[in-house]
Design goal:
Blueprint: H1 2-8, H2 12-42, H3 44-72, H4 77-88
Helix pairs in contact: 1-2, 2-3, 2-4
Length: 89
Amino acid sequence: MLVPVLFYFKSQEAFFTSLYSSAIVATGFFLGAVIMSYAAKISLNFYYFAALFGYVFRLIFIFGFLLLLKNVYSIDDLAMSLTVPIVFF
């Protein structure tokens, strides 16, 4: 969570945009991990399917909520466009 702290020096809007964006990406990874852990308990083939589906699900979840955030609130585009890839990697 170092990225939102760095954007705090730019503006408060950039800080909150970066904070929300990083929370959305982190939640997407957490949901992917939960899906794969339950799938591993069932079978190996279902685990492989969940790995592929979990990746697609994470992308849809992350970009869907980021678009929703962008449409509902006034955000800093630079903060979002830099936070998402940094937290994603």
